[in-house]
Design goal:
Helices cover 68% and strands 4% of the residues. The chain is mostly helical. A hairpin with a 7-residue loop joins strand 1 and strand 2. The protein is elongated, with a radius of gyration of 23 Å.
């Protein structure tokens, strides 16, 4: 019976169906994210954080008790990854970052979206992400350290060095501090990638074209009509 119970738990975990015990009407499930929805990824990451202890408990039980070697190996690997400072840092980073882009994602999914509002939200989101990229590191870093302290996860000495990933130490691999790795190779790079992706998807020329098109909106007796934008559009 115990084996069947553990097998059921790991199958739930793989399908994203683990629940936290909060009563019949208050349970929270670990939903599987969609492939193309930033918002769904944000929700899943938030639930991982909310259900942290429950998820680790399931993985610990599987790693210790299941007789299925593959399941035990997977559970042990997930435990090792989750109880690592870098995993916690990336988890908190992506929750914050996707939280800022979530409103834009939801806005763009609406079929009857106001173009002017959507274009304005694109600019606002880019500004917010850029602001966090420049000034948000310390707040995130302190939040991650506090989480690790609460959950007995080792915080590495930020002045210790590690070899840059993908280069062997014996072949002249570059050494950097943990601080450099976390701030400049993860925090900054992730924000830069989001900024580049948004600029590529919402180029200034395209967004300006949308602003011009809105002046042809017939609602409210062409309330958005603007002769200068018509000329620019032409």
């Amino acid at each position: 019976m115990a084996q069947q119970h553990h097998e059921h738990l790991v199958n739930q975990l793989e399908r994203g169906e683990i629940f936290s015990g909060r009563g019949k009407h208050q349970e929270t499930n670990l939903a599987r994210p969609g492939d193309t929805r930033w918002g769904s990824h944000h929700k899943t990451l938030c639930r991982i954080l909310l259900m942290w202890d429950s998820i680790l408990e399931v993985l610990e039980n599987l790693a210790e008790d299941t007789t299925n070697g593959d399941k035990r190996y997977v559970a042990s690997g997930l435990l090792k990854q989750m109880e690592n400072f870098e995993f916690v840092l990336v988890l908190h980073l992506m929750i914050r970052l996707l939280g800022k882009t979530n409103d834009l994602s939801l806005c763009l999914q609406k079929k009857d979206q106001n173009i002017v509002l959507a274009v304005g939200l694109i600019g606002t989101t880019l500004e917010q992400v850029s602001e966090v990229r420049e000034h948000g590191w310390e707040e995130l870093f302190e939040e991650v350290k506090a989480f690790c302290l609460l959950h007995n996860i080792i915080v590495p000495n930020m002045e210790d060095t590690l070899t840059v990933r993908g280069r062997a130490r014996g072949r002249g691999g570059q050494l950097v501090t943990h601080y450099h790795h976390f701030k400049y190779e993860i925090f900054n790079v992730v924000h830069d990638q989001i900024i580049v992706e948004m600029n590529n998807r919402f180029a200034e020329r395209s967004t300006q074209l949308l602003r011009c098109i809105t002046c042809l909106d017939p609602r409210n007796s062409f309330a958005n009509y603007d002769r200068s934008k018509i000329l620019e559009l032409a």
